[in-house]
Amino acid sequence: MPHGSYAECPNCGIVAHGDDEIEEIFGFRYGHTKPQSWCKECRSSRNYGSGERLSVWDAADIWMSNGMDEDYMFGYSEDELRNALR
């Protein structure tokens, strides 16, 4: 979760301090104004093959609570997430 000049991933707990480190570990969104909530590693598809993939229902809840932001789709399509919310 972003906190001023540092960000902490709610999934793995990694912390980054300062814009350069935040950019490297998390990346920014909204025109470089807000750090991503989850680090790049946790958001990457590399973790999806490890058996740690979120269920479509959990992913849909997170996606919805983050304003249906494409950064929170966890490898699912928009149709899959919308169907899980029904």
Kindly describe this structure.
The mean pLDDT is 83. By secondary structure, the chain is an alpha+beta fold. The radius of gyration is 13 Å and the shape is elongated. Strand 1 (2-3) and strand 2 (6-8) form a beta hairpin. Helix 3 packs across helix 4 (78-84). The protein is 34% helix and 14% strand. The protein contains four helices and five strands, in the order βββαββααα. The chain has two domains: 1-43, no CATH class; 54-86, no CATH class. The strands form two sheets. Strands 1-2-3 form a three-stranded antiparallel sheet, covered by helices on one side.
Q: Keyphrases for this structure?
A:
single chain; 86 residues; alpha+beta; 3-stranded antiparallel β-sheet; two-stranded antiparallel sheet; 34% helix
Which percent range describes the beta-strand content?
5-15%
Shape: elongated
Total strands: 5
Oligomer: single chain
Q: Total domains, how many? A: 2
Helix content: 25-40%
Task: Name the helix and strand elements from N-terminus to C-terminus, one letter apiece.
Answer: EEEHEEHHH
Number of helices: 4
Average pLDDT reading: 83
Low-confidence runs of at least 5 consecutive residues: none
Radius of gyration: 13 Å
Sheet with the most strands, sense and barrel status: 3 strands, antiparallel
Structural class call reads alpha+beta
The neighbouring-strand order within the major sheet is 1-2-3
Q: What is the end-to-end distance?
A: 28 Å
